[in-house]
Design brief:
mainly alpha, 1 helix, CFAP58_CC, Cilia- and flagella-associated protein 58 central coiled coil domain-containing protein, coiled coil
Length: 113
Amino acid sequence: ERFGLDLSTAYSKCMRGMEEVKIRDNRVTEAGKIIDEDNTRLSIQKGLYDDARAERNECCKKLRESEDEISSLKRKLKLMHHEIEELEEDVKAKDEAIMKECYQYNRISKSAA
């Protein structure tokens, strides 16, 4: 009878232990699923981060190119402005020369008449 009681107690402990192992296995399985889901989310976030970083780098590159183009256009504008001033001075000098020639021509025409 004592062996039967010991056997029954041992069997109960064994069953409880197996039940605990089953529960822990389920917890491990659930934790594994959560880790897999987290890894999937992490992978998606990493992809989004990489996309955003690539887009930022592309924007920075375009910004530098635009700044270089603006700088180049400013230099060209300055040169054109200087050239326009020179041409205006040339036109003014030629206008004065033409006016002087017209004045002399008119003066000579009147004195000859």
